[in-house]
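Q: I'm building a small set of examples for a reading group on sequence design. Run inverse folding on the following structure and report the sequence directly after it, with nothing in between.
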């Protein structure tokens, strides 16, 4: 039985039965390779969201008009990535089984793997769209195959070639880029070039899409409260345009991850993440209305 969270994200106070989208948090950062703190991201986004309005002038729409239920954060085992991923997978599967769109708040990027496993079980032809500074295609990181540096490689293990589209990628070791360039993934360097064509093709084919957004796709000048910031990223408006583009596809699940709020004492990074989440929720809500 789903119960409402005490402190919800701004405007996300629909009851579970009527909700089209369900937020759930995965406060996990045990495999973070540089600066920890992403486990505090989901709670910070909820708490700071009340500095925003529910209305989006970008989309001329209001989050209060969207049916979103915030189920709060999962209680995850920090000592075991396998156990944490199993809990994330179970929650995503429960939400999907009830005909709702699961939207996961990380946490480090590894949490995506749990959600993808659940969505793939329900949608065998699932395709992933990834916005990220990092390729995340290492086969292992210091011997660990379950790491935020390996999350897309683990997803590839399940999906196979041609079903992961990566954008804004500007960091990784040579083997990761070689792996992508060999045709295993569609890797687009530096920005969103190629997204419009990819999204149009996916929309025309009505393929189920999982959208994963690592906030370090943004330039550190826009958002520096993240574990592994990388110079040369995109702007807020470029990311918003990309989200709106993807919302025209058949999105069946999504996540927003890698906010480490304590690394930006000004609070600006958290405020930016909240605004991105507001826009993402509105865009996906409108998409479900038109595509279902």
């Amino acid at each position: 039985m789903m119960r409402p969270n005490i402190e919800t994200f701004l405007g996300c106070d629909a009851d579970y039965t009527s909700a089209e989208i369900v937020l759930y948090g995965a406060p996990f950062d045990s495999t973070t390779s540089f600066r920890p703190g992403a486990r505090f991201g989901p709670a910070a986004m909820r708490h700071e969201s009340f500095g925003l309005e529910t209305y989006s002038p970008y989309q001329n729409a209001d989050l209060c008009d969207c049916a979103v239920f915030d189920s709060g954060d999962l209680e995850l085992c920090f000592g075991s990535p396998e156990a944490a991923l199993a809990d994330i997978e179970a929650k995503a599967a429960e939400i999907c089984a009830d005909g709702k769109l699961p939207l996961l708040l990380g946490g480090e990027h590894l949490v995506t793997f749990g959600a993808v496993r659940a969505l793939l079980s329900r949608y065998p032809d699932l395709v992933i769209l990834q916005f990220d500074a990092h390729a995340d295609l290492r086969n292992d990181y210091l011997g660990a195959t379950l790491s935020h540096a390996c999350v897309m490689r683990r997803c590839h293990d399940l999906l196979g070639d041609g079903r992961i589209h990566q954008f804004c990628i500007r960091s990784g070791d040579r083997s990761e880029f070689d792996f992508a360039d060999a045709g295993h993934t569609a890797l687009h360097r530096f920005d969103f070039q190629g997204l419009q064509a990819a999204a149009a093709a996916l929309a025309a084919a009505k393929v189920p899409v999982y959208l994963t957004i690592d906030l370090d796709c943004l330039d550190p000048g826009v958002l520096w409260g993240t574990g592994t910031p990388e110079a040369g990223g995109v702007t807020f408006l470029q990311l918003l345009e990309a989200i709106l583009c993807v919302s025209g596809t058949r999105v069946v699940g999504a996540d927003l991850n890698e906010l480490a709020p304590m690394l930006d004492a000004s609070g600006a990074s958290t405020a930016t993440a909240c605004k991105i989440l507001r826009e993402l929720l509105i865009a996906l809500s409108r998409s479900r209305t038109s595509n279902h």
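The mean pLDDT is 94.
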